[in-house]
Design a protein that fits this description.
The protein is an alpha+beta fold and 406 residues long. The chain has eleven helices and seven strands. It binds flavin-adenine dinucleotide (FAD). Flavin-adenine dinucleotide (FAD) binds next to strand 1, strand 3 and helix 11.
Length: 406
């Protein structure tokens, strides 16, 4: 089946709307919340209410991270452009406005994607409208998420799990309504025993200990959270409580197939912002980028710009492909990692090169270029670093298991 890589026409109003919001609501407060690290961007409440309203009216498909469910209604065999594609396109636009504010958007957390990916129908309904962050990383465990040490022990008397452990670098960990926590039911059984739990804020035993000060995405809060005999109902375990050694990590990993294209779209949006402003600044300096002439016949700055745009285009297409495959219920782990790897890398390269091309204007706070260069770096780190994405791609291409290629 061929893939049509034109923007789907029916998403144009959504993308246009997201662009307007990014330009008129996010950009004007971008610098303010970059400086006021840890202050809550209260302007986002109104925006989140607008997105909720659009979602309820059905006017907005996939306005944010919450919209990555693979729904059953796409099983008629026809090719479709669905929620995943709509999500990456609108998130790229919002990230063009400000990726840190996008990450701070109520009810659009990465935990929402986890719920959308693995929750059962009852849980979908119960957790609808919740703002959920995602806690995987621990002091001793980042990339190797299969070796987490946080435990969840079932107590049949209370039908609860008791969670114990520490999670670090939880995006929106303080502001979200609930945290989706990865914990192991049995350390001896390895990755198959890792399950995720929805833990509402305020649950006794869960404490937000501190917030990080960071290089970029300063508008987004990043929390350390401690769990001490924190009890959650058994019904808050997402997916199946069975430990299926054969299926292994597949359930937990399914979340990443949905979230990696989203992070790719953030990098695509942030890089696009830097390219758009740089083209404007180059033009003011008398350098016009000419798409009809070979790069080698143009000024060095224009040639560099054309090369960056080609890289950007490749990341954009990989992002669309990964999301399109999810919409059409095709296994997309390889493509999701390829999109994340390419977009993460070129996102950082492009934003930093734009600082370089714009000279003093690029490095100063007069423009947002320096901020975008700082913000984009995280998009090449979280949800799996550049190196980890390359490892996943290599394993898939070579047909090797995680034990065979580490
Ligand atoms: C601002 C911010 C927000 C975050 N938000 C969240 C969040 O919401 N939820 C959450 O759970 N986590 C979050 N994280 C954590 C993030 O996902 C981890 O930092 C990331 O997975 C890397 O883990 P690590 O920092 O422990 O690095 P490590 O895993 O220790 O890696 C260090 C370096 O070694 C490389 N490396 C590791 N293993 C290999 C290998 N096998 N082959 C080659 N190279 C390798 C890595 O690529 C990296 O460059 C966040 C981090 C930051 C900075």
């Amino acid at each position: 089946m061929p893939i049509n890589l034109d923007d789907p026409k029916r998403f144009r109003p959504l993308v246009g709307q997201a662009h307007q919001v990014a330009m008129n609501m996010l950009r004007p407060i971008s610098r303010k919340y970059d400086r006021a690290e840890h202050a809550y961007p209260k302007e986002l409440d109104m925006l989140a209410a607008m997105i909720d309203g659009l979602a309820e009216s059905g006017a907005s498909e996939g306005a944010g991270a919450a919209g990555v469910k693979r729904s059953a209604d796409d099983e008629d065999g026809s090719v479709r452009n669905g929620t995943n594609l709509a999500s990456v396109m609108s998130i790229a636009e919002m990230s063009w406005g400000d990726v840190a504010l996008l990450l701070s958007m109520p009810r659009q957390g990465l935990g929402n994607s986890a719920i959308a990916s693995v929750a059962n129908d009852e849980q979908h309904e119960r957790f609808d409208g919740l703002w959920a962050s995602m806690a995987i990383t621990e002091p001793g465990t980042g990339s190797d998420s299969a070796s987490i040490r946080t435990t969840a022990v079932f107590d049949p008397d209370t039908d609860c799990y008791a969670i114990n452990g520490e999670k670090i670098f939880v995006t929106s960990g303080e502001r979200s309504d609930a945290v989706v926590v990865w914990a192991t039911l049995d350390k001896e059984l390895g990755r198959a025993a890792i399950k995720s739990f929805v833990v509402p804020q305020g649950t006794p035993g869960m404490t937000v200990e501190r917030l990080e000060r960071k290089l970029g995405i300063r508008a987004s809060d990043t929390a350390t959270i401690r769990f001490e005999d924190c009890r959650v109902p058994a019904a808050n375990l997402l997916g199946s409580p069975e430990i299926d050694v054969k299926q292994g990590f597949a359930g937990a990993m399914a979340t990443f197939d949905n979230t990696r294209p989203l992070v790719a779209s953030m990098a695509v949006g942030c890089a696009r912002a830097a390219l758009d402003l740089t083209r404007e600044l180059l033009s003011q300096a008398g350098v016009e980028v000419d798409y009809d002439r070979p790069a080698m016949t143009q000024p060095a700055a224009a040639a560099k710009f054309l090369q960056m745009e080609a890289d950007w285009e490749a990341a954009y297409l990989l992002m669309l492909q990964a999301a399109w495959m999810a919409d059409n219920r095709r296994p997309n782990s390889l493509e999701a990692s390829m999109a994340k790897a390419k977009a993460g890398r070129v996102g950082s390269d492009i934003t930093l090169s734009c600082v370089e091309l714009a000279g003093t204007l690029g490095y100063s706070e007069a423009e947002l270029l320096e901020k975008w260069a700082r913000d984009s770096k995280i998009l090449d780190i979280f949800e799996g670093t550049q190196q980890i994405q390359q490892l996943i791609v290599a394993r898939r291409v070579l047909g090797l298991s995680s034990a065979e290629l580490k």
